[in-house]
Design goal:
The protein is of the alpha/beta class. The chain has helices at about 1-5, 20-25, 40-50, 70-80, 90-100, and strands at about 30-35, 60-65, 85.
């Protein structure tokens, strides 16, 4: 969160992934960053709900998980994450990841 604020992004943190689709619909964010951790089913359901809403389906989503959680990373992609990154190097690579996920196609 602090690193994003240092890059001049407005940041809103949520206490649970289930909140993400409703908050995204209300706030209209530029992008969503989701820390996957161990709640794969809850996080993937939230990603799918974000993708299923017409108002939020276009929002780029960066999922962050541990490098060891290959199944979790695959599940995030299948649920609709645009990009999945490992948490061990996220701070060093954050500006490049943001550029990649926000690239207009």
């Amino acid at each position: 969160m602090n690193r994003l604020q240092d890059l001049d992004y407005r940041v809103q943190t949520l206490t649970s992934p289930e909140e993400m689709p409703a908050v995204a619909q209300k706030e209209k964010p530029l992008l969503v960053i989701l820390a996957m951790e161990e709640k794969a089913d809850v996080c993937c359901a939230a990603i799918k709900a974000l993708r299923d809403q017409a108002d939020t389906a276009h929002i780029p989503l960066l999922a962050i998980g541990t490098q060891k959680a290959v199944a979790l990373q695959k599940a995030a992609c299948e649920a609709g994450a645009n990009l999945v990154a490992s948490d061990n190097a996220i701070l060093a690579q954050l500006p490049q990841l943001l550029d990649q996920i926000l690239r207009v196609e």
